[in-house]
Amino acid sequence: QEQLVESGGGLVQAGGSLRLSCAASRSVFTIMNWYRQAPGKEREFVAGIDSAFSTTYADSVRGRFTISRDNAKNTLYLQMNNLKPEDTARYHCNAVTGFASYWGQGTQVTVSS
Fold first, then answer.
1. What are the DSSP calls for 39-96, one per residue?
2. pLDDT digit string, tens, across residues 8-32
3. What is the mean pLDDT of residues 100-112?
4. d(CA 99, CA 32)
5. What is the pairing mode between strands 44-50 and 55-57?
C-alpha cells in the first residue's frame, strides 16, 4: 500500500507564501495532484502534474500556485504565493497510477486576513 505524507502547512497572513510537500513511499506515479477541502465544502482540485511534467491548475489558483515534482525523491510540491483567506483549507496529495488512486491525510493551511 502506497503512503503519501504531506507537510509544509501552517498559518500565514494574506499575501504570504507557503510550500507544501508530499512524500511518497515508493514508485513514480503517472499523475500527481493537489486537492483541498475547506470546512463545510466539497473537496476541490487545485493543481495536477503528469509524468511528462505537464501541469493543470484550477482557475482560482492559476498564476499564484506552482506544482512541481521530483521523481528522484518521489516528492510532489506546491508553491503557494500571494495567499488569500479563501485558500484556507486542508490540502491533500493525490497520486494516480494504473487503476489505483492514493490519498494522503492532508496538511492544514490557514490564511489570516
1. TTS--EEEEEEETT--EEE-TTTBTTEEEEEEGGGTEEEEEE-S--GGG-EEEEEEEE
2. 999 999 999 999 999 998 767 889 9
3. 96
4. 14
5. antiparallel
